[in-house]
Amino acid sequence: MDPKIFRISDEVQAALADGRPVVAMESTIYSAFGLPEPANRECLLRCEQVIRAAGAVPAMTAVLDGVAVAGVGPDDVDRVLAGTAKIAARDLGHAHATSLDVGVTTVSASVTIAARAGIAVFATGGIGGVHRGVEVSGDVSHDLLAIARHPVVTVSAGAKAFLDLGRTLEEFETLGVPVLGWNTDRFPAFYVRDAGLQLTMTVSSGTEVAAVLRANQALGHPGGVLVANPIPAADELDPVRINEAISEALARAADQGVSGPGVTPVVLAAIAEATDGQSIPANLALAENNARVAAEIAVALAAGREPSAV
Ligand code: PSU
Ligand code: MN
Fold first, then answer.
1. CATH code, domain with 298
2. How far, in Å, is the centroid of ligand 2 from the Cα of 210?
């Protein structure tokens, strides 16, 4: 692979070569698009720490000097946290062609990079999905199709709470993506554990997710899997309060005339304001919790790659 297009860090490369567990991470949530300073840096450190504590290697994805990277080294972390270009999967080629200085990767770009690197598990906060009012806007995040297309397990606290979550689940069914509730049969809504939507599949260990993956691949259904991991109960926000905050936030985004990729940052900032900042520690807690579960799954997958499994 041309190293001017795609690069894997030495640490991540060494882990993959040895068959050790690796967890890919996105970078949009650690930039100003996802979290304010200094919560963004704290979030990244906590996620990386919990992944390492489980015995896996974290691999944040980003675009640096036009190169899509899996594994951002300490020298480049500050640049990524300060990134101001939000890069989805379709933007990667153009980011290369124009030698983009820094791009922060969304879920769709991250699963694309993870798949290319041979990383099987990816941790995010909340994925994109079908936006409320899709009948008018047509706004459906490419995250959904990217998850369907690439053989990567995405661990997410459900989808972003201000989406149309019922339609988002329907879309996953259409795309053939298994949505596995982690110790739950309810779809979580980011800040709250239950969006009021039923899931048909529940898992309770990394080994079980690894078994789902192996069976799907053996059966010729090789795309991605979504693990829906609810925010820890202690960190959950009050559903009534958060729904009011979301309504206010969406009204503000509409007033400001923002659309497309601009919606998420405006809405997240407005939710933080409307919850007196309570949404920020909740966001950190769920991201760390997803990193922990992703690491458990990566460890189980790596253990399953022993010669006896062949
Ligand atoms: N959820 C958050 N913060 C974020 C995102 C989601 O709480 O920053 C980001 C993720 O990177 C996700 C992206 O992939 O938003 C989806 O953006 P869009 O809806 O424009 O596709
Ligand atoms: Mn969109």
1. 3.40.1790.10
2. 30
